[in-house]
Amino acid sequence: xxxxxxxxxxxxxxEGAPNVVLDTVKKxxxxxxxxxxxxxxxxxxxxxxxxxxLPIKSIYRCNILEDELEMIIPAGLGTNGFDQTFGxxxxxxxxxxxxxxxxxxxxxAGLQPAMDWILSHPEVSDEPDADEPPAAQTLGSATTAxxxxxxxxxxxxxxxxxxxxxxxxxxEGLTISLAAAxxxxxxxxxxxxxxxxTEAIAPLTPEEKKAKLAELKARLAEKRALKAQExxxxxxxxEKMRRxxxxxxxxxxxxxxxxxxxxxxxxKRKEKEEDxxxxxxxxxxxxxxxxERLAKKEEAKRVAQAEVAAAASSSTVKPTNxxxxxxxxxxxxxQIRVPGAAPITHTFSADATLTDVREFLQTQGCTGVFTxxxxxxxxxxxxxxxxxxxxxxxxxxxxALMLAYA
Length: 406
What we know:
Elements (H helix, E strand, L loop, with lengths): L1 H7 L8 H11 L3 H12 L5 H5 L13 H5 L10 H6 L9 H10 L5 H10 L29 H6 L10 E4 L4 E4 L1 H11 L4 E4 L8 H110 L15 E7 L6 E6 L4 H10 L6 E6 L2 E3 L17 E8 L1
Parallel strand pairs: 4-8
Antiparallel strand pairs: 1-2, 1-3, 4-5, 6-7, 6-8
Helix pairs in contact: 2-3, 7-8, 8-11
């Protein structure tokens, strides 16, 4: 049975396992029942609470070697080593759960390692874990198995008074009972410096327990105060970093907004400049068209004046072949310039009146009220000239007239 239990123990490294193993051994009547109960507890068909609630049978002292129990109960402390070390389940500390967690975390290495673990893990909560078994299955509750079976110790050759009872770990200040426990400690921690010792591991006195608890409280308070100070400093640092990051983000946002505003302003200014250039181009085109029209008009006027001047000069030329004798002209050739139409040229009798000329022009489509005039010399004919002949008006033998609508 002991070999089977020893084989199963590494698989039973879960919370409450030591108490369940001891209680199961004490409640069983034979070895087969022990194995069955252990498998029911840790084989998936039952749990620790179910095993501990089984009816108590007659106490059976099985021959479990002490080094096998050492795999369950910490060395040198017996089955109730937790209570012997901390006393009263650490009720004087910040609750017994912290001490129990430290004891489990250090695998029952002793008070000092447990204290060091508590001091190095101030963030661990004092509240029970979600999968924490009932108090009846915790390490500190195995008070019913405080003494190893006497017959087992005698059969396995327990070392008596005055003989070697422990292994001293050099340089560590730690004393471990039994060679097997020391060997397991060496395998677990890789420590090599062991020496034999006959010094018995004495339990702590109440005064030593109180002193240890006071020391633990002080160191724990100091550790927590230091942790609180570090947290406060870290919080300040994080706040400064957050503010600096916020300022940097604000600065970047302002720069981006400024760039966007500048971009929009440049686009608006470019649009205005393009509009101004377009308007200037249109104005320049209008002015060019105007100048072109004026130039054409001036050219037409100059041509007309040249023609009138040529006609006038030809009408004033007198024959010089017979001096003192005026030549008689019977006809008058007139060129009349009509606005918006081609010039009208017609030959009239020298005795024809200006009224005859007006009537002829009306037959040519010049309706409405209009006046006739010469360009050189400048003269506009009035009502008194309508009855005069073309000879009297000096319009023979040829002349140019300008028609203008009133």
